[in-house]
Amino acid sequence: MRAEAGENPALQGLPAGALSTQAPLKAPLQAIRQGPEPSSGPALAVLLGLSLSHLLNDLVQSLLPALYPLLKTGFHLDFGQIGLITFVFQGTASLLQPAVGLYTDRRPLPYSLAVGMGLSLAGLALLSAAPAYGALLAAAALIGLGSAIFHPEASRVARLASGGRYGLAQSVFQVGGNAGTALGPLLAAFLVVPYGQGSVAWFCLAALAGILVLGTVGRWYARHLAGAPRIARSSTGAASGRLSRARVVATVAILLGLIFSKYFYMASFSSYYTFYLIHRFGVPVAQAQVYLFVFLGSVAAGTILGGPIGDRFGRKLVIWISILGVLPFSLALPHVSLFWTVALSVPIGLILASAMPAILVYAQELLPGRIGLVGGLFFGFAFGMGGLGAALLGETADHVGIERVYDLCAYLPAIGLTAVFLPRLR
Asked: CB neighbours of 27 closer than 8 A, spacing ≥ 6?
């Protein structure tokens, strides 16, 4: 059946025959870059496939910081060396993601999703058998490279499949990654800590499953690209066209500042929260990993809420609340008991995580037609800030103690005050 005028077949759900070759894509490549028409419904099967693959991708990646207590003891590492591992992993992803996104804006690469997961698989295999610190750094670099290839193109496919509900699509996509990040420490606590570094090899099965899922998503994407005429993309869009170039650049800078505050603070949890709990409260390693899972689980919940709320009430409101709203809880956390430390970590993760879907969609509306660049820039900057934060906070912990790190990081959410300068796009 032929599509009606103005209807984009790329957005039809898989059960309705989205994979059928009888319905060639009529929309131009610009529509693929900018996203679907709001009148169409989300392609839920594609979004769920992306979310599952994101879960598997970030599950693999989250094993690296989850292994830090084990690696610190086994390789006799200090906090600075732990931070360098994170910096290599997240720095690799940070530097390459914008370049990948810019390239795929012009030449989409559907099967690069599976290739990225393959590189993460190689890094995971090396991590399971690394004999020395240098091999750990190489494994971290491979995992970071896989992430750099995966995220920009996956973010583009999520927008393509959104049916106009861009915030919801980004939340579904990103919550998979946060769920994988949350599961990593939990699985490490019950599988890797008891059985050692070599047991990491079993998680290669998760990476293999991710390759299979991404191969299917890549075929879905490729069939739509095959029918799209390649026309020149407009250099400006509706949102950015109403703003001067200087205002657009300033707005992007503000958004990156918010990403800095979010991910620098998140680095204190993802890399050092277990050490903080062990040092301050004397909890066992496995129990500390469970408490880290509680925090990361709240991050996953916040991610799924942020996008739909932004669709309904506006991205700027969500951005404002999700960064600045953490401040009362972050200021209280270093001064309370173990129970309240764990309890306060829940609203911190929940509120802070709701920012990313809203920030990403806001940036896509600010720079329409540059979906890959936006995804690469913001995911890459997030990874970079996480890596830089881990490295600097590790050195800080070596000099002034791990508890002092949380005293200093408590003020980072105050950077959310800069959200008042964001223009209203809609």
From this structure: 8, 9, 10, 228
Tallying the residues shown for the chain, one arrives at 426
Q: Which residues lie below 8 Å from residue 21, measured CB to CB, with a gap of 6+? A: 223
For residue 341, give both structure tokens.
């430390």
Helical (H) or strand (E) element with 223 = helix 204-226
Distances (CA, A) of 157 to 162, 175, 325, 425: 9, 15, 31, 23
What is 28-419's CATH superfamily? Answer: MFS general substrate transporter like domains (1.20.1250.20)
Residue among 383, 406, 413 nearest 146 (CA): 383
Q: Which two tokens stand for residue 78?
A: 């200090």
The span from the CA of 292 to the CA of 3, in Å, is: 49
Per DSSP, the residues of 293-343 read HHHHHHHHHHHHHHHHHHHHH-HHHHHHHHHHTTHHHHHHGGGS-HHHHHH
Span 212-221, pLDDT tens digits: 999 888 888 8
CA 316 to chain centre: 20
pLDDT at residue 6 greater than cutoff 50: no
* CA quadruple 95, 96, 97, 102: dihedral sign: positive
pLDDT tens digit string along 59-100?
A: 887 778 778 888 888 888 888 888 888 788 877 877 788 888
Contact 200, 128 (CB under 8 A): yes
Residues with Cβ < 8 Å from 169, sequence gap 6 or more?
42, 47, 158, 159, 161, 162, 163, 307
Domain boundaries, the chain: 28-419
